[in-house]
Design goal:
five-stranded antiparallel beta sheet, six-stranded mixed beta sheet, globular, alpha+beta, 8 helices, 20 strands, 363 residues
Length: 363
């Protein structure tokens, strides 16, 4: 169905080296990243941070002002869009309005002169995976947003290509179909050993499917790593505050003169630190909501909070607590019976503490 690209090759399918793209009010870059053959590579970040521009640079719809984009080791500067042999699903779609769903899906195959028997086989496969059999005879104007998105995905799937670029590919689908499509995308990518570059502002979506993730902030790549790396070991506050839902809690303060304690401006007690840290100096302590535990035991670090509101969400409960004027988020497992406006004493999981220096860099 797709050409196989083996993981044994050391050559990257896509490599971006020190690329800069200037806009009137925004500069993207310098960007450097490498996507391996057969990899599911995610790009995540808030809206308007340059994620789609990175895809357009790979595809050739934009040319870099500085740096270079290499495809299978070759400089792409002289390659046209067609020569790059890359499929893309755009966020705003790009269906031919005068063609029905079937014609849109098989268009790239027709253009390449694929035999009718093979076209029929691939159309049947794509229709089954994406559940579009009932809309193949509809024109785009007659389809819902989710139906148009599935047809656009089908057209990209049907085309054999070096790599597939996906820009918010399932954003228009309902929640249940999004979850199903996430599983199908990962399965298809694995079974065909295809190279995917997947862009989304939905953190859960990107983290669920990607082998590695590039976190983009303010036009630059803040960190590249496995989903576990960027979640468990964010290299900066910029990454820590966009990865995780609810987001990480931050406490401002300083390190003790011996480097063994964090002395928070608003904490009741000094928080003991494990491992080596520099002595003295301002710092920021980061704690994820699930790493704040209700009911500090005697001898543990303790923090007194007032519970403002309780959000029971089935498998877990979000507690919104107050520390002076700061809101502290707590994610407790299961259903938690905590009265609103009550005072609760909590502690932090010492194994999962994040410490950042005055420049916001992990220490």
């Amino acid at each position: 169905f797709w050409p196989a690209f083996g993981r044994s090759s050391k050559m990257s399918a896509i490599e971006i080296r020190n690329v800069v793209k200037n806009y009137p009010n925004f500069t993207l870059g310098p960007i450097s990243m490498s996507v391996e053959q057969g990899e599911f590579f995610g790009i995540f970040g808030p809206p308007s941070t340059g994620k789609t521009s990175i895809l357009k640079l790979i595809l050739g719809l934009l040319q870099p002002d500085e740096g270079e984009v290499l495809l299978s080791g070759q400089d792409s500067v002289e390659m046209g869009v067609a020569e790059r042999d890359i499929s893309m699903v755009f966020q705003n779609l790009a269906l031919f309005p005068h063609m029905n769903g079937r014609e849109n899906i098989i268009f790239p195959l027709k253009e390449r002169g694929v035999p009718e028997a093979e076209i029929s086989k691939q159309l049947d496969f794509v229709s089954g995976v994406l559940h579009v059999g009932h809309i193949l005879e509809k024109n785009p104007a007659q389809m819902s947003g989710g139906e148009r998105q599935r047809i656009a995905l089908g057209r990209a799937f049907a085309a054999t290509s070096r790599a597939m670029l996906l820009d918010e590919p399932i954003a228009a689908l309902d929640a249940r179909l999004r979850e199903e499509m996430r599983v199908e995308l990962k399965r298809l990518q694995r079974e065909n050993n295809q190279t995917f570059v997947y862009v989304s502002h939905d953190e859960e979506e990107v983290m669920a499917v990607s082998d590695r993730v590039a976190v983009v902030a303010d036009g630059k790549i803040a960190q590249i790593g496995t989903p576990d790396d960027v979640y468990s070991r964010p290299n900066s506050i910029a990454v820590a505050e966009v990865i995780g839902s609810p987001p990480m809690n931050f406490f401002q303060g300083k390190l003790s003169s011996d480097g063994k304690f964090f002395e928070g401006d608003k904490l009741n007690e000094r928080f003991p630190l494990k491992g080596k840290t520099k002595a003295g100096g301002t710092a920021t302590l980061g704690v994820r909501p699930e790493d704040i535990w209700l009911g500090a035991k005697d001898g543990d670090f303790g923090l007194d909070l007032v519970i403002n509101s309780v959000e029971p969400l089935g498998g877990y409960t979000i507690l919104n607590a107050q520390l002076d004027e700061q809101i502290v988020k707590i994610r407790a497992p299961g259903q938690v019976d905590v009265p609103e406006s009550s005072k609760q004493r909590v502690t932090f999981d010492q194994r999962r503490i994040h410490l950042f220096d005055e420049d916001g860099i992990r220490v």
